[in-house]
Each structure stands twice: as C-alpha cells, then as structure tokens.
Amino acid sequence: MFNKLLKVLRIKHNKQQGFTLIELMVALAVSSIILSGITVTIYQIVSINALASNRMYAVNQVQNAGYWISNDAEMAHAIDVNDDIGTPDLELVTIDWVDWDGNTHKSVYTLAGGIIKRSYILNLGTPVETIIAQNINPSTSCVLDETYYKRLIVTLSATVGGFKPVTVNRIYETIPRPSV
Q: How far, CA to CA in Å, does 35 sit from each of 24, 30, 41?
C-alpha cells in the first residue's frame, strides 16, 4: 500500500510543469503597473496635502495681520502711513488713539524680513513688541484713502512653501471712528 502511494505521488509530481517564462514576465509587468499606480496615488495625496497645508498657513498669517491692523485702525484718532526713514524696518502704519478712560495707545506695525511686528505702547510706557504674521511679501502696503471717507486700505500678501509655493492675497478696508 505504501508503494502504491509513492507511485501516485511520483506520477503527480512528474506531471506538474510550473510557470513558463512568459507567464512570469506577464505577472511581473502587471505587478509593476499596479505598484507604479499606487506610488503615483500616494505621491499625489502627499503633494495635495502639503499644498492645502501651505495655503491654510498663508491664509492664517494674512488674516492674523489683517485682524490686528483693522482692530487698531477702527479705534484710531490718527493714522500715519509714512515710513520713518531713520529706522531700518519698513513702517507700514502707525495708529494712535485715546480710550474712554483717557489712556493713550499707539501701535506701530513694521515689516522686515517677511515678518510683521506690532509695537504697542500704552500711556507712553515701554513698547511691547509682538510678531503677528510671518512669510509676508514685500508687496504688502498700507494706504490712507481720504477721497470718500478717511479709510485705511491694507493689502496683504503671504507666500508659503518651497517646491510649489502658495501665495494668498487679501485687502482689508477699515474706516476709523470719527474724531470728536
């Protein structure tokens, strides 16, 4: 009985032929097409995610700068958009106001090296400097338009990213409170 079993196994073993070279090459080609498709898909997902992340960061920086400048400008009694040539940084805007309690406030916004800083002074005290935005383009500007109402027009632009940079532009218009 054991001999018969060995004989059956030898016959089945001899009839097994395996894969031909053409079948192996076709299988290799199909698997390489599938792998390249998966690789391209993963690259696209990572690339789109990076672009979306860069765009959101640029929008956040522009909105943050627009918020602070607009917030201060709404309370302003005096707005000066002239650059002080005696300082190395570009002064975008200087905003002065007096609150209900008689406290004097002054905010000076400067742009240097793609960074907007806010220097805030309360009652002629020590200035407190805060970075409010980064990656800001030099094309950023502040203009005081006095034709219709006295309004501050701030044009902000930020660029984020290396290989495929994303640029975001926003314009903020603020009408200061009327002088008494």
A: 16, 9, 10
Residue 114 per-residue DSSP state: T
Q: How much is the average pLDDT of 107-134?
A: 92
From CA 159, how far away is CA 134, in angstroms rounded? 9
For residue range 140-168, what is the model confidence (pLDDT) as tens digits? 888 888 876 688 889 999 999 877 899 99
Rounded CA separation 60/64 (Å): 6
- The amino acid present at 33, given as its one-letter code, is I
Residue 22 β-bridge partners? none
Q: Please write down the long-range contacts of 165-172, taking CB distance under 8 Å and 24 or more positions apart.
A: 165/54, 166/51, 166/54, 166/55, 166/58, 167/58, 167/137, 168/55, 168/58, 168/59, 168/61, 168/62, 169/62, 170/62, 170/63, 170/66, 172/66, 172/69, 172/70
The answer to whether residues 131 and 115 touch, using CB atoms and an 8 Å cutoff, is yes
Please give the share of the chain, as a percent, with pLDDT higher than 70. Answer: 88
Q: Regarding predicted confidence, which is higher, 7 or 15? A: 7
**Cα dihedral 88, 96, 107, 79 sign:** negative
